[in-house]
Design a protein that fits this description.
This protein is mainly β. Helices cover 0% and strands 57% of the residues. The protein has strands spanning 2-5, 9-10, 19-26, 32-44, 47-61, 70-77, 82-90, 97-104, 110-116, 128-133, 138-143, 148-154, 161-166, 172-177, 182-187, 192-198, 205-210, 216-221, 226-231, 236-242, 249-254, 260-265, 270-275, 280-286, 293-298, 304-309, 314-319, 324-330, 337-342, 348-353, 358-363, 368-374, 381-386, 392-397, 402-407, 412-413, 417-418, 423-428. The strands form 9 sheets. Strands 1, 2, 4, 5 and 7 form a 5-stranded antiparallel beta sheet that branches. Strands 33, 34, 35, 36 and 37 form a 5-stranded antiparallel beta sheet that branches. Strands 6-3-8-9 form a 4-stranded antiparallel beta sheet, with no helix packed on it.
Length: 434
């Protein structure tokens, strides 16, 4: 990730900037997500008092030479005393984005041009990891730029948070609370609770995922065998998808195009496929009896789903085109695999080995185990999330109430970072805009 900022630009001079053009170009071979902010700064004696964002735009830039590798935002209002521009890039191509800002006067004549590049334009990474502390009714917020605790958000007593999902623009975190049948909505900018969405009694939510356009959240309810669909524009329940009795839904993942949701059912050893356009069940995929599916992740190309089988120490691989089981990957005895995540380039899957205090890395091209990354004894790793550039994986230690960071290039593990009691789910902001 890279963040570029002009800083406050003084505009009380002649000629005065009246409008801006912002040009972006992906100069690399990987896709990137880019957020554009124009902001007004309120001057004060001896400094500045506040910053107000008045333009906010998110675009995806394809690799250089392909369609949509560039983007121009034109005629941006800038007739302000003090203003600034911030560009946040994310994804595998985050460091390959060229940013040019053109300043124009009231007649449209160019009066200045700025190229945002180099260390002087960069500011500290603005990504955060949100950890659901099941044993403490809190959410710990980690600054991934410094790997320090930013804050802790208290939830109502008895919430028992289990899973976290964050909107694609990074503005809002949704926490599934298994203890009080709610979903807590957190404003990422202020880390305060916006609202609480009540689910039906005895829902016992276990997993949560948000679709790619940020319009809906899907919550698995292990207590009543349903999936609740939430409208994120209003934070109200849109509909409920009923699963077969005894399904015991747990983990959930959506395909990158948002067309389908895959639900891991720990109660009846199956995976249910939901068509998100109609919120109806397409099919149910039977897994090995006694497998106890728990976590699920889908490759970036939507071709396969990887399911952790907590009861028989394996990972099941599903072909999403045919919705048939391709193969089963055997893990070490006693693994009790739980969380799973896949790198943004789709080359590796990381699985938390709860029983053996390791994280298992799988080569998705061969579906063979590449390595077993040891964690501190007693960690009982549970949740796992990976940064948008694939450089680091964050793992919650349910057994020792910590989080560790794995550098994916070297498999190096950071010193444990104390979080709340018995952490489970974790999610990382994909991009940070506020």
């Amino acid at each position: 990730m890279a963040v570029f900022d002009t800083g406050p630009l003084e505009n009380r001079i002649t000629p005065r900037t009246s409008q801006l053009t912002i040009r972006l170009l992906n100069t690399g071979r990987q896709t990137a997500q880019v957020g554009i902010e124009a902001y007004e700064v309120t001057p004060a004696v001896g400094g500045f008092t506040s910053e107000t964002i008045y333009v906010l735009n998110i675009v995806q830039l394809n690799p250089f030479g392909s369609p949509d590798s560039g983007f121009t935002l034109d005629n941006i209002y800038a007739n302000l005393d003090v203003f600034g521009v911030r560009v946040i890039t994310s994804g595998l191509g985050a460091n390959d984005i060229a940013v040019t800002i053109v300043e124009k006067d009231s007649t449209g004549q160019i009066i200045g041009e700025r190229l945002l590049e180099g260390e002087l334009s960069q500011i500290q990474e603005l990504l955060f990891a949100y950890v659901a502390n099941n044993g403490q009714d809190t959410v710990t917020v980690i600054n991934t730029g410094t790997n320090t605790i930013l804050t802790t958000v208290p939830l109502p007593t008895g919430s028992l948070p289990v899973a976290v999902a964050i909107t694609p623009n990074g503005s809002t975190a949704y926490i599934a609370n298994g203890g009080n049948d709610t979903v807590t909505v957190i404003n990422v900018a202020t880390n305060t609770i916006l609202t609480s969405i009540a689910l039906p009694p005895a829902s016992a939510p276990a997993g949560i995922a948000i679709n790619p356009d940020g319009s809906r959240a899907y919550v698995t309810n292990g207590g009543n065998d349903t999936v609740t669909v939430i409208d994120l524009a209003t934070n109200t329940i849109l509909t409920t998808v009923s699963l077969p009795a005894g399904s015991g839904p747990n983990g959930i993942a959506l395909t990158p195009n948002g067309l389908r949701a895959y639900v891991a059912n720990g109660g009846n050893d199956s995976v249910t496929v939901v068509i998100t356009a109609t919120n109806t069940i397409l099919t149910t995929i039977s897994l090995t009896a006694g497998s106890g599916p728990r976590g699920i992740a889908i490759t970036p190309d939507s071709s396969r789903a990887y399911v952790t089988d907590s009861s028989n120490d394996s990972v099941t691989v599903i072909n999403t085109s045919t919705n048939l089981v391709l193969l089963t990957i055997s893990l070490p005895v006693g693994s009790n695999p739980r969380g799973i995540t896949i790198t943004p380039d789709g080359s590796r899957a990381y699985v938390t080995d709860f029983g053996n205090d390791t994280v298992i890395m799988i080569n998705t091209a061969t579906d063979l185990i590449l390595s077993k990354i040891p964690l501190p004894a007693g960690s009982n790793p549970d949740g796992i999330a990976i940064t948008s550039d694939g450089s680091r994986a964050y793992v919650t230690g349910n057994g020792n109430s910590t989080a560790v960071v794995i550098t994916t290039a070297t498999d190096a593990v950071s010193a444990p970072l104390p979080v709340g009691l018995n952490p489970q789910g974790i999610a990382i902001t994909p991009i940070q805009l506020y």
